[in-house]
């Protein structure tokens, strides 16, 4: 029998000892008893393995910058930085989290369509590696700050690519968008940048889509980014130093989805290298990939305790102490059009054979607070545990934690049996 996605993920990333799911070498049952629920448990070993696998696939082509928005906890940022990753941030708060994690300013890129003056002033004065500009107002704003502090600000142009280059579960380009400059306007954008003495044009940044599982779509976007970089370099009349290919590398959340083919990336590296060498203005450019979900997502488990089990008109409901206020994505209210269930297990009943469909809901007074609509689980009662896999990215900080003033979820990082408490439940 073909294993389900849930079974595959458990086998790939974690271990099972008798009835217990183990994360980072420790039973979830024991971690929940000691640290309380709701609780995000992050397996540092899984995250390191994801980083190393991607680094190997990109060897000789691109560098990795961790996208902090996926999970901005300093402990997670520190983990990836210790592996050699730079970081990509989208706010002064993320910048401070990266600095608190020990990341040097010259390893940080700043993108985002609505950077405030105070944010730009702070990061520029601190020596940030690059600011990725996304509007004509921002070109003028960054130039004015650079002139005021006596610096040539290293920057890249973020480009909203043409429709042919888009792809992924959520399209970031190829249509009207607040992100970057339209590709059709490149000549005017480059002219505006080159007219500013306080700006040092270093490269380009494209991000056409997110949650991409098809390697051919991803590679097509990367090739298009190299073509755009070549045109920008020609318009500027100077070599480029960086080509930010964006993130968008996906992970499987739903039955029937596969994993991104890293071997396909490795196979394409020689061709991508050839494209760079073909243009003298790109020969020394440094491509960058900025994944977040791909690196952090599979290492996270969100654990809830059952508060009540009830039957309503033939449907079994499991009411828990967690919900959409901690894990909006798992509820289907963060980008999903058709709501589907994340992979879910009973982490202290992994040996159970008899299961039946259950609807898993949280404590909020809204039908939106539903984390599973028809997932197979054993017979569970009050104080039993439920765990949502693939929860290391876009969880706690991407959710409306203040809604109905429910308690915050705790967070712990576990690696080789050692626990680091990040925030208490």
Automatic annotation (TrEMBL):
The keyword NAD does not apply. Its cofactor is pyridoxal 5'-phosphate. Pfam families: Orn_Arg_deC_N. PANTHER family: DIAMINOPIMELATE DECARBOXYLASE, GROUP IV DECARBOXYLASE. Keywords: Pyridoxal phosphate. SUPFAM superfamilies: Alanine racemase C-terminal domain-like, PLP-binding barrel. CDD domains: PLPDE_III_Btrk_like (cd06839). It comes from the Bacteria. This is Type III PLP-dependent enzyme. It comes from Tardiphaga alba.
């Amino acid at each position: 029998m073909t294993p389900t996605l849930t079974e595959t993920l458990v086998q790939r990333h974690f271990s099972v000892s008798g009835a217990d799911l183990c994360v980072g070498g420790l039973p979830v049952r024991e971690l929940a008893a000691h640290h309380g629920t709701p609780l995000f448990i992050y397996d540092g070993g899984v995250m390191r393995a994801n980083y190393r696998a991607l680094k190997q696939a990109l060897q000789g082509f691109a560098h990795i910058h961790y996208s902090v928005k996926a999970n901005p906890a300093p402990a997670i940022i520190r983990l990836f930085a210790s592996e050699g990753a730079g970081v990509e941030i989208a706010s002064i708060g993320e910048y401070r989290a990266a600095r608190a994690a020990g990341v040097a300013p010259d390893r940080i890129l700043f993108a985002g369509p609505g950077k405030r003056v105070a944010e730009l002033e702070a990061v520029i004065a601190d020596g940030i590696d690059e600011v990725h500009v996304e509007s004509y107002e921002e070109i003028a704003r960054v130039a004015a700050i650079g002139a005021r502090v006596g610096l040539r600000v290293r920057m890249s142009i973020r480009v909203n690519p043409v429709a042919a280059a888009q792809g992924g579960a959520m399209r970031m380009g190829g249509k009207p968008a607040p992100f970057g400059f339209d590709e059709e306007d490149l000549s005017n954008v480059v002219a505006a940048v080159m007219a500013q003495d306080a700006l040092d044009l270093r490269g380009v940044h494209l991000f056409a889509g997110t949650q991409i599982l098809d390697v051919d779509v991803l590679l097509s976007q990367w090739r298009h980014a190299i073509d755009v970089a070549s045109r920008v370099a020609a318009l500027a009349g100077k070599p480029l130093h960086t080509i930010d290919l964006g993130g968008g590398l996906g992970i499987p959340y739903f039955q029937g989805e596969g994993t991104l083919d890293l071997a396909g990336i490795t196979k394409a590296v020689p061709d991508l290298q050839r494209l760079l060498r073909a243009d003298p203005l790109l020969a020394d450019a440094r491509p960058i990939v900025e994944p977040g979900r791909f690196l952090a997502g599979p290492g996270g488990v969100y654990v809830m305790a059952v508060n009540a089990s009830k039957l309503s008109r033939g449907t079994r409901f499991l009411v828990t102490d967690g919900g959409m206020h901690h894990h909006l994505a798992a509820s289907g209210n963060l980008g999903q059009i058709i709501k589907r269930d994340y992979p879910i297990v009973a982490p202290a009943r992994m040996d159970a054979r008899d299961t039946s469909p259950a609807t898993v809901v949280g404590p909020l007074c809204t039908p939106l607070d539903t984390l599973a609509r028809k997932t197979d689980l054993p017979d569970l009662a009050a104080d039993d545990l439920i765990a949502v896999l693939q929860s290391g990215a876009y969880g706690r900080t991407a959710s409306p934690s203040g809604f109905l003033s429910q308690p915050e979820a705790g967070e712990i990082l576990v690696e080789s049996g050692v626990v680091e408490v990040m925030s208490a439940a």
